[in-house]
Design a protein that fits this description.
Layout (H helix, E strand, L loop, with lengths): L14 E2 L7 E2 L17 E2 L7 E2 L11 E3 L17 E3 L6 E2 L17 E2 L7 E3 L11 E3 L16 E2 L7 E2 L17 E2 L7 E2 L17 E2 L7 E2 L17 E2 L6 E3 L17 E3 L6 E2 L4 E2 L4 E2 L5 E2 L7 E2 L17 E2 L7 E2 L17 E3 L5 E3 L31 E2 L6 E3 L17 E3 L5 E3 L31 E3 L5 E3 L17 E3 L5 E3 L2 E4 L4 E4 L3 E3 L6 E2 L31 E3 L33 E3 L6 E6 L12 E6 L3 E3 L1
Parallel strand pairs: 9-10, 41-45
Antiparallel strand pairs: 1-2, 2-3, 3-4, 5-6, 6-7, 7-8, 8-9, 10-11, 11-12, 12-13, 13-14, 14-15, 15-16, 16-17, 17-18, 18-19, 19-20, 20-23, 21-22, 23-24, 24-25, 25-26, 27-28, 29-30, 30-31, 31-32, 32-33, 33-34, 34-35, 35-36, 36-39, 37-38, 39-40, 42-45, 43-44
Amino acid sequence: IIHPALGTTVCTRVIIHPALGTTVCTRGIIHPALGTTVCTSVIIHPALGTTVCTRGIIHPALGTTVCTRGIIHPALGTTVCTKGIIHPALGTTVCTRGIIHPALGTTVCTRGIIHPALGTTVCTRGIIHPALGTTVCTRGIIHPALGTTVCTRGIIHPALGTTVCTRGIIHPALGTTVCTRGIIHPALGTTVCTRGIIHPALGTTVCTRGIIHPALGTTVCTRGIIHPALGTTVCTRGIIHPALGTTVCTRGIIHPALGTTVCTRGIIHPALGTTVCTRGTFHQALGTTVCTREIIHPALGTTVCTRGIIHPALGTTVCTRRIIHPALGTTVCTRGIIHPALGTTVCTSVIIHQALGTTVCTRGIIHPALGTTVCTRGIIHPALGTTVCTRRIIHPALGTTVCTRGIIHPALGTTVCTSVIIHQALGTTVCTRGIIHPVLGTTVCTRGIIHPALGTTVCTRVIIHQALRTIVCTRGIIHPALGTTVCTRGTFHQALGTTVCTRGIIHLALGTTVCTSVIIHPVLGKTECEPEQAVSTARSRPLGWSLLLPQVFPLLPPGVTLRPCPGPCQPSVSHQPAGQVHLTDRSSSPESDWDFRSCSLLPARTPTLLHSPGAGKPPDSANTVITETPLPIFCF
């Protein structure tokens, strides 16, 4: 701190205050006797009033102020500024990220405002309201006294009505206009719009990304929509719609009042019918035409198509990439769609469709007259079996289907699947990254989702759903019909209801359980969670599935636990009474619906279930044994 006797000064970090008033300040506060100044971080205040401020506030006695990142309040013109304001004595002001409120011209500015004494205003990310009405706004809001305007990010609204808007809304008092991202609405009606909407009072117009709508009706549209009052037009990405009907369209839609037209990516529709199309759609009133990428459709029907669609009036044809469709029906299609008059076919990429119905499709869609087929990238659809598939699908007439990364829809078993799916006629399903929906067993699979008809299941990554409802789920969600379960990463749900979950959540109907990292849920509701504390749930009734083991569930004693066995499982009964069957070590087979072992780990004298139904057979009295043995732990 330096405090000379003649000039009171408080400063930190390098201050020089000569007796005559010259001051150099770095990162501190300076208060000279003749010119009150509060400054932080590099201030120079000569005796004559010149002030340079960086990251602070300077208030010279005479009013000259240069401020960067601070607040300036000159004596003659009240100004509050943050981060860079220049307010000379004559009124010129440059503001960055702050507020300026001069006494003569009320102005609220945020991040850059220039307000000269005469009224000119430049605004960046703020609001400017000069007294006279002239307004230049960039990224802010403008509300002139004479012309109400709300603008965000760049609006110019002179007093006479001219308006340039960028990413905002303009609502002049005389011409109601709603604009987003660049609209020009002069007082006479000329309009240029970029990414916004223009709604003049006399001619309703909706535009997005560049529209010109003169008062007489001429319209040039680029990536937007034009709706003149007299000729309804919807355009996206470049449309020219003169008043007489001539239309040039690029990536958009044109709907003249007299000739309905749908255009996408470059269409020319002269009044007489000649049509040249590039990547778009052409729909004349008398001759419907849909074309993309270079199509010539003379009035008589001759058609040459490259990467597009042709629909002559007499011979309907849809094609993309090199299609020749003579008037008699001969068709050669490469990477496109062919729709002969007698044999409807939609295909892309190397398709041969003979008159008798034989179809070979690669990367496209084939629709024979008798067997509807929609295919992309490798589909073979015999006439008797409707199939929708992508990438290498074989569908024999009897229903057998092999699908890889696609969709299969057999006639008797509706299936939608993508990426390696096998759906046999009897219902067996293996799905990876796809969806399977058989008619009798509704299944929705995405990277492994199984939804049996009676037991709703949602799972992701590696799911096997056999006809008997066996489910193996890894990193997914399992939702049995009676016991809601949500699990992610490592879930195993056998037909008996056993669930092993790692890093997931299990919610049973009778016992809500939320657990992460290793969850085991036995049939009776007992839950053990590791590494967290075990959560005991209601054990008064089983999970509730009535499809499997209905006679066995009621026999399970209270306290029986199902969980992964820590090691080799020993038989729970060392002897076998005559005429009875018991589980010696484990009961398993490729066809069985469940598999568990019993271990005599908990001493108790309680009836114990020992069950070995065999290959997918439900239990009955013949193979169900109850013996007085130590209470086991059923493990799997």
